[in-house]
Automatic annotation (TrEMBL):
Involved in the maturation of mitochondrial 4Fe-4S proteins functioning late in the iron-sulfur cluster assembly pathway. Probably involved in the binding of an intermediate of Fe/S cluster assembly. InterPro entries: ATAP (IPR016092), ATAP_core_dom (IPR000361), Fe-S_cluster_asmbl/transfer (IPR050322), FeS_cluster_insertion_CS (IPR017870), HesB-like_dom_sf (IPR035903). This is Iron-sulfur cluster assembly 1 homolog, mitochondrial. It comes from Rangifer tarandus platyrhynchus (Svalbard reindeer). NCBIfam families: iron-sulfur cluster assembly accessory protein. It comes from the Eukaryota.
Length: 129
């Protein structure tokens, strides 16, 4: 039986600059303002949590809820003083997504502009990736 020897060299890099990575979720100024406004009335909460649930025609739907703490496996996005936590199950589905808040004469809602969505259900509430 022959033994193989593998060598590895480790170099200490002291002045390496880390490149900032792109945030998992980008927040528009209108969603930042709306979340600040909502949290003003709930001082015990530190931010909002985005999740994903099975819904509609066997697809996925985003959920939003107030949160008091960051979960162990939550991804945290901090932008302009607003903290948004992303549940582990939703992290891959939200990569590259922009979260917006839109108001018109008849409705107001949080909108997720997700470039990864391949299609939506006819119910209009769910999507598939």
């Amino acid at each position: 039986m022959s033994a193989s020897l593998v060598r590895a060299t480790v170099w200490a890099v002291s002045k390496r600059k880390l490149q900032p990575t792109r945030a998992a979720l980008t927040l528009t100024p209108s969603v930042v303002n709306k979340i600040k406004q909502l949290l003003k009335d709930k001082p015990e909460h530190v931010g909002v949590k985005v999740g994903v649930r099975t819904r509609g025609c066997n697809c996925l739907s985003y959920t939003l809820e107030y949160t008091k703490t960051k979960g162990d496996s939550d991804e945290e996005v901090i932008q302009d003083g607003v903290r948004v936590f992303i549940e582990k199950k939703a992290q891959l589905t939200l990569l590259g997504t922009e979260m917006d808040y839109v108001e018109d004469k008849l409705s107001s809602e949080f909108v997720f502009n997700n470039p990864n969505i391949k299609g939506t259900c006819s119910c209009g509430e769910s999507f598939n990736i």
